[in-house]
């Protein structure tokens, strides 16, 4: 009886690599943790795996164990000879999805297929994009990870979350209302930032937890920069919804301003933020019925009824810990801080 393994070792180099499996075999690996989930990255290109490290620092950390493992495979074939990708490649991406899968079309720079239920994604990227791991993180990895998170036990809200003495302040508002500016004013007055964009609510260990993405990052409109000169020096321009905003990484200013870990939900002050033409600020009561519409338009994109039911169930659990308010902010910074502090 022949030794199959010996035959393979002896002759495999003679086999035609028709599918480029030999050339594309993963030789490098990195492992990160996202909300306690191990995420294994592998690739035939070493530098592209730096995208995993850029991603890891953007999500709240957690000490959870026994979380399912997710996998992201990134292949860089030599035949994709696209020029360097444009700076705003993210604006050119096409997404296609149904049921539990998502396809991401990066045009000349690659494509990706993600099985969200299994927590596994396969990407084929051009060498020119692979040489820009931070951009790979921006245009691809974060999309994969945020979809895995909401497919594996977390609800999502678009809101700013700040921490005060282990309690949570949630600010929700339409774009351009001043939510980020208000959050930054609070940060400069003793609060810590969990997230200024997306918050996640999950059940782990018989407790309800909240995490954020991106951690330690806040964005300001151009007209707000003169109000925060120390931060303006650290700001980087970024296009958001046809508007130029200025991204500030708090770790460059003061790491103590960010709360990097998931936090158990004990008490939440949930505020719908509105701007009015007065100098003073005011807090008014808010009913849960008034809040639900805002939740529906500030959460997941369209998805199945089953997904939405689970999403809303966890949000409702969070609301059992929450006091609900309408926060009308005026022009006076001192009045905003004083008014918010009356919540405690």
**At CATH's second level, what is the architecture of the largest domain?**
3-Layer(aba) Sandwich
Number of strands: 20
Order of strands, widest sheet: 1-2-3-7-6-5-4
Helix content: 25-40%
Q: CATH first level of the largest domain: which class?
A: Alpha Beta
- CATH topology assignment of the largest domain: Rossmann fold
Could you state the order of secondary-structure elements as H and E? HHEEHEEEEEHHEEEHEEEEHEEEEEHHEH
Runs with pLDDT <50, length 5+? none
Report the span from N to C terminus: 79 Å
Mean pLDDT: 94
Features:
alpha+beta, 2 domains, 7-stranded mixed beta sheet, 20 strands, 26% helix, elongated
Write a brief caption for the model.
By secondary structure, the chain is an alpha+beta fold. It is built from ten helices and 20 strands.
Structural features, described:
The chain has 344 residues and is of the alpha+beta class. The protein has two domains: 134 residues, no CATH class; 187 residues, Rossmann fold (3-Layer(aba) Sandwich), CATH 3.40.50. It is 26% helix and 33% strand. The strands form four sheets. The protein has a seven-stranded mixed sheet with strand order 1-2-3-7-6-5-4. α3 packs across α5. The longest helix is centred in the middle third of the chain and has 19 residues.
């Amino acid at each position: 009886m022949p030794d199959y393994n010996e035959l393979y070792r002896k002759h495999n180099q003679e086999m035609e690599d028709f599918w480029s499996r030999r050339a594309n075999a993963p030789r490098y690996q990195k492992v990160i943790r996202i909300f306690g989930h191990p995420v294994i990255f592998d690739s035939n290109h070493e530098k592209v795996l730096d995208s995993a490290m850029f991603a890891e620092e953007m999500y709240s950390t957690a000490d959870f164990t026994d979380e399912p493992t997710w996998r992201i495979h990134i292949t860089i074939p030599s035949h994709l000879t696209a020029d360097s990708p444009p700076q705003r490649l993210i604006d050119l991406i096409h997404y296609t999805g149904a049921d539990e899968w998502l396809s991401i079309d990066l045009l000349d720079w690659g494509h990706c297929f993600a099985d969200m239920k299994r927590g596994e994604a396969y990407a084929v990227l051009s060498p020119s994009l692979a040489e820009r791991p931070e951009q790979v993180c921006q245009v691809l990895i974060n999309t994969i990870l945020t979809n895995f998170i909401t497919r594996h036990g977390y609800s999502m809200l678009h809101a700013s979350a700040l921490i005060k003495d282990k309690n949570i302040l949630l600010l929700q508002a339409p774009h351009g209302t001043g939510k980020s500016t208000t959050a930054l004013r609070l940060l400069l007055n003793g609060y810590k930032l969990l997230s200024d964009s997306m918050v996640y609510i999950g059940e782990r260990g018989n407790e309800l937890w909240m995490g954020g993405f991106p951690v330690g990052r806040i964005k300001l409109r151009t007209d707000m920069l003169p109000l925060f000169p120390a931060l303006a020096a650290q700001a980087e321009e970024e296009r958001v919804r046809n508007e130029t905003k200025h991204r500030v990484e708090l770790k460059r200013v003061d790491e103590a301003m960010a709360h990097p870990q998931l936090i158990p939900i004990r008490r939440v002050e949930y505020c719908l933020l509105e701007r009015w033409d007065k100098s003073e600020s005011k807090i008014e009561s808010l009913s849960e019925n008034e809040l639900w519409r805002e939740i529906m338009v500030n959460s997941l994109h369209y998805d199945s009824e089953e997904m939405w039911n689970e999403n809303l169930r966890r949000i409702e659990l969070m609301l059992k810990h929450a006091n609900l308010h309408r926060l009308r902010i005026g022009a006076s910074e001192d009045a905003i801080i004083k008014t918010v502090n009356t919540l405690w």
